[in-house]
Structures are given as C-alpha cells and as structure tokens.
C-alpha cells in the first residue's frame, strides 16, 4: 500500500481505480484536467484527494503538481497513467492533427506524468502502471491514430522499465480489450459485451502490478481480456 497517483482520475476507469484502491488501504490522488471534482468525491472517500485543472502537457506545471502531491500526501509509491483518449477514423479521413492529438493524449501525458513522478518514485522504489490497449497489438481499420499512440505507450513502458531498473522502480502496462463504460455501451449498442472488461476488474490488475506480489514483474505488457 502507500500513495497512488491516478491521471485521468475523474474518468470511469480512474474513479473505479481510486475507489478500489482506497478500499484496499491506499491513499489516492486523483489527477484530472477537469476544473471541478465529481460530486460523489465530496466527503465520500477520506483516502481520496482530488487535484483538478491538471494540464499534463505542460511539463513545468505537471512537475509542480507532483511536488505538491508528494508534499501533501507524504510521498508517491505508484503512478497509474490512465489519462488518454480514443477516436475511430480512417487514415484517408485523418489529418495529421488527429494523429498528433492521439499522441498527445495518450503518450505525452504518460511521459509528462512519469517524468514528474520520478523523484518520488525513486525514493519509494515504487512503480508505474500505464494503460495501453490490446487493440494496439494489431490495428484494425479506423484504428490507426489510436493504436499508433497506444503502441507508443507500450514502447514507453518497455524503455522506462529498462532505464529505471537500477533505481528499483518498476514499469508495466495493462492492455485491456474494450472497457465496459457507459460511453462504450452508448456508442456500440449492438456489440457483444460479454468480452468487455469491467473497470473494477482492470483496476484490480493495476493494483496487483503495483503491489509487492508483483515485485518480480517489470517491463511487462499484460493483456486484460476475456
């Protein structure tokens, strides 16, 4: 246990991870670009702190934010890079700006947060868990910009794992299939949802990778699929 920082903390997966972690005894910092924390966090979870208005693409601001989190919560033991985005668009339709946006939302947010957390993580000999995508192992039609970005998250995970190995900081990634969220149910009403992954189930895999039980796991890309 310890202090868990979750980027994209106000989204469906971020909130699920925060609640599962808090119930397991973690102290959680939910970081999100939204200016107002969800109402359900108000006094509901004493082990969860909300940090609003975070621009993870601003490296200086992100570094200052993580320094504040470390000072306020007493350290950083695990960073979960949940922040990201998705689009379905064909290559013929997708301008370079779409590809750039996917890279920024998925790869650069993880990079910025990871760099900002390193000082605290090295002190605690902690861990980073990134959220990749099973779909990025083989791109389907319309998935080029998104899967290219998530493949970047996979390579970032592997590179960081090797670079940080001497410091005792572990870096792994989860590769979920479609996550069962209200937005996905709305966008894919006729899909077979039996193979979708519940946010809480994915959260438990993330917490396993952050735990002492996974101390021998480093640089792994872990599929979370049914």
Structural write-up:
This protein is an alpha/beta fold. A 7-stranded parallel beta sheet has the order 3-2-1-4-5-6-7, with helices on both faces. It is 42% helix and 15% strand. The protein contains 6 helices and 7 strands; from the N terminus they run E-H-E-E-H-E-H-E-H-E-H-H-E. Helix 1 packs across helix 6, helix 2 packs parallel to helix 3 (96-124) and helix 3 (96-124) runs parallel beside helix 4 (144-164). The chain has helices at 12-23, 59-73, 96-124, 144-164, 182-187, 199-210; strands spanning 3-7, 27-31, 48-51, 78-81, 127-131, 170-176, 221-224. The protein is globular and about 50 Å long. The mean pLDDT is 96. It has a single domain (3-224), classed as NAD(P)-binding Rossmann-like Domain (Rossmann fold, 3-Layer(aba) Sandwich), CATH 3.40.50.
Identify the CATH homologous superfamily: NAD(P)-binding Rossmann-like Domain
Helix percentage: 40-55%
For the termini, the CA-CA separation is 28 Å
What is the typical, i.e. mean, pLDDT? 96
Strand content: 15-25%
- Total of domains: 1
From the helix content, strand content and strand pairing, which structural class follows?
A: alpha/beta
Number of helices: 6
CATH topology name: Rossmann fold
Largest sheet: 7 strands, parallel
* Strand numbers in spatial order across the main sheet: 3-2-1-4-5-6-7
**Gyration radius from CA atoms, angstroms:** 17 Å
* Secondary structure: number of strands: 7
Shape: globular
Order of helices and strands: EHEEHEHEHEHHE
Q: Unreliable stretches, pLDDT < 50, 5 or more residues?
A: none
Name given to the CATH architecture: 3-Layer(aba) Sandwich
CATH class equals: Alpha Beta
